[in-house]
C-alpha cells in the first residue's frame, strides 16, 4: 500500500519547479542552499497574452486558470473594492473585527487573497483608523453597503448607528484628505478635530461632531452616489443640529476657542461642499468676530490645535477678500478708514506671525502677505476712488509687493532638483505666478495678454502637480490663471484643471467652473464683436461672479 503523502503548497518556488520536498526553511530552504539555487517564497505572477504561447507551470495549479473561479457569481464593484483594501491588511492583526465578515463572504470567495503583502508596520499620525470593513448584503443583491470600522476611540461608541460610523469614517479618510492639497502630518481635519469630536462631552464638541457628519454627507451627495437626496437630507439635518448645539455656547464666554472655531469651520465647509454660494461668509465673520472680541484670552501658542485653527481662519479671510472687491458683503462692511479695519489688520498680522503659516493652503507666508496687501490696496482704491488715492502710498505698497514676489521668484531659481519636482514646490510656484496675475489684473486692470506668461507658468505647475500627485490642488492659483486664459494652449490646460477639480465632491467647484466658462464666453463675444484679439479684452471675474449671484470661497 502506497504511503499517504501530505501535499502542501507552501514550499519555495524552486522546489515546486523541481518537484522535490521543501523543508520551508526561511529565508532559504535547505535544498536550495545546498545547491546554491535562488530560493523565493514571494508571490509569482505570470502574465499570458492571448496571442502568445502558454507558460510552463511550476506545479502549483491542479486546474486550468479559467476553471479556478467557475461556479462563483460575479462580484459587485463595491465588494471588489473591499477585497482589494483587505489585501494590505496586516496578517498579524489579531482579535475580532469591529464588524465581523458576513458568512457569504468566505476566504475562498476572495480572488485577491494571493496578493496580500506583509505589513510594513509603518506608523500613522494621531487619530489613525483601522481598515476593518463589513459588507452587508441588502435586498438588491447587486448592491452592497460598505460598513467601515473606525479607530479604537470610535469602538467606544457601539450604540452609534452604522450610518454615522460610515460617515465619520468617510470624513476622516476622504473629506479630511481633501482639505489639504497633499498629505501632511499636521492636517487638523484628519487628526485633531475628529479626536475632539468623538469626546462629545460638551456642546462645542457635539456641534463639531454633527458638523463633520453634515460635511461628510454633503460630500457624498456631491459625488453623485445613488442616495444623493438622502445624503443631502442627512447633511441638512446634521447642519441644523450642529447650529443648535453651538448657539448656547456662543451666548456665554467661550471656553475652548479651538474647538469652537473647528465647529464653525465644519459648518462653513458643509456650506461650501453643499454648493451654497455665500452663507459661508456669515460663519467666517462670526468666528473672526469671536477671535477679535476675545483676542487677549486666546491661548495663541499653547496648543498646536489653537495655532492651526487661527491660521486657517486667517487664510480664509485673506483668500475670501480677493472676491470682495466688487461685493458689498459681510466681510467688506465699513470703509478702509474704519477703526475696525486697523484692528483686523493687527489681528491678521499676529496670526500670520505664527510658525508655518500657510501650510494648510500650500502657500508660504510671503505670498499670503502679498495677496493681503493687494486686497487692502484694492479696497482702498474702491472706497476712496482712484483720483483721491495717495499715489505715493500706493507706490510704496506696490514696490513692497513686487520686492517680495521677486525675492520669492529668485529663491525658486536656486532650488534643488528634488525641490523642483516635489508637489509642494509646484503648489507654491503656482501661488507665486498667480499672485503676479492677481496684482496686475486687480490694481492695473492689465489685459490678459500682459499676464499671459504668468498664466502659462501657473497652469504648467498645476499640470506638473497632478502628474505626481493625487492630491486636491489649491483652487485659488488655478482659478486666478484660468479666468485669464485665452490662447488655445492655456485654455486646454485650464480645461484639464477644471475637469480634475470638479471630481472631488466639492460643490463650490461647480460654481467656479461656471464662472470661468462665463468669463471665457464674454471675452470671446466681445472680441468677435469689435474684431480684436481675445488677449486685449479684460473681463473682471468678480463682476461676472456677482452677475451670476455667486460668492464662492476659492479654496
Automatic annotation (TrEMBL):
**Keyword terms of this UniProt record:** DNA-binding, Nucleus, Transcription, Transcription regulation
Can you supply one Gene Ontology CC term for this chain's record?
nucleus
Instruction: Indicate where this protein resides in the cell.
Output: Nucleus
Q: What is its main location?
A: nucleus
| Zn(2)-C6 fungal-type domain ranges (all copies) | 11-41
Q: Which InterPro entries match?
A: Fun_TF, Zn2-C6_fun-type_DNA-bd_sf, Zn2Cys6_DnaBD
Q: What are this entry's molecular-function GO terms?
A: DNA binding; DNA-binding transcription factor activity, RNA polymerase II-specific; zinc ion binding
A Pfam family this protein belongs to? Fungal_trans_2
Is Transcription one of the keywords UniProt gives this record?
yes
Q: Does the keyword Secreted apply?
A: no
PANTHER family listed in its UniProt record: PRO1A C6 ZINK-FINGER PROTEIN, TRANSCRIPTIONAL ACTIVATOR PROTEIN UGA3
- Report the protein name in the record: Zn(2)-C6 fungal-type domain-containing protein
